[in-house]
Amino acid sequence: MPECHTIPCLLSPWSEWSDCSVTCGKGMRTRQRMLKSAAELGDCNEELEQAEKCMLPECPIDCELTEWSQWSECNTSCGKGHMIRTRMIKTEPQFGGAACPETVQRTKCRVRKCLRGAGLEKRRWKEAR
Question: Best exposed site among 42, 72, 89, 127 by fewest CB in 10 Å?
Fold first, then answer.
């Protein structure tokens, strides 16, 4: 019998690379090819799929804030005034992420009425001195 020669693998060309597995940041992409010769004609040890890393622009990072603080005391001891509360920035926005909203809020407050006579008494006391 004449010597048998193995038939080489017949493979299709590689496909185009797939899209990156992520829409931003680091991911993977793949490509494939197919076996064209019948498997019974011989072993084919060629790879049929390849993968590689891909990198897209960084993912947007939105601003992150702490919870609001408690409202401050009213800034006056009588009459109209204001109170404030604050919150801190935990993460600054990056790569087009959402901007930080306000970090200070102010609201009106009203404490008991101021006594008008108190100012008059002080003036009389100064004059008496």
Answer: 127
Q: How many residues make up the chain in this entry?
A: 129
The answer to the question of residue 101 being in a domain is yes
DSSP 24: S
**pLDDT tens digits for range 17-56:** 999 999 999 999 999 999 887 655 567 788 999 999 999 9
How far apart are the two ends of the chain, measured CA to CA in Å?
137
Tokens (6 digits) for 120: 């008059």
Number of alpha carbons in the 13 Å side-chain half-sphere of residue 36: 9
**Angstrom distance (rounded) from CA 53 to CA 26:** 7
